[in-house]
Amino acid sequence: MVDSGRSRKGNESNYALQVHSKNGCTFNDNGLCELFGTGLQPLECRFCHHSRTGLGKKCHLDIEEDWKTERGQRLIVRWGNLTGFWQRQGNALNEK
């Protein structure tokens, strides 16, 4: 990755390792989203925290359960193949 010199947060062009997930959202600053109103807010966050006010944590857990299904796993593999993500990570995954 080429460093443009600007300050970065998050996990650009890579996937977040589970070891860091306990740290919570990188863009949460005193309970407010630094990305709110920029057009860069992640879809899941917009869906869970703004379309379903007060149900954020439950919404995230429900989405996590969907990703763990066979259908969700196939979608992840397909997305990775279509975007070249797996290839950039040095992996080759075949769709079932």
Order of helices and strands: HEEHHHH
> Number of helical runs?
5
Content-based structural category: mainly alpha
Helix fraction bin: 40-55%
The rough form would be described as: globular
Summed up, the domain count is 1
**Largest β-sheet summary:** 2 strands, antiparallel
N→C terminal distance: 31 Å
Q: What is the overall pLDDT average?
A: 75
Strand arrangement within the widest β-sheet reads 1-2
As a whole number of angstroms, the C-alpha radius of gyration is: 16 Å
Low-confidence parts: 1-8, 10-14
Q: Oligomeric state of the chains?
A: single chain
The total of beta strands comes to 2
Strand content: under 5%
What report would you give on this structure?
The chain has 96 residues and is mainly alpha-helical. The protein has one domain (18-88). It is built from five helices and two strands. The protein has helices at 18-21, 43-50, 56-67, 70-83, 85-88, and strands at residues 28-29, 32-33. It has a two-stranded antiparallel ribbon. α2 (43-50) crosses α3. Residues 1-8 and 10-14 have low confidence and may be disordered.
Q: What layout of secondary structure does this protein have?
A:
Blueprint lengths: L17 H4 L6 E2 L2 E2 L9 H8 L5 H12 L2 H14 L1 H4 L8
Task: Label this structure with key terms.
5 helices, 4% strand, globular, disordered N terminus, 96 residues
Summarize, please.
By secondary structure, this protein is mainly α.
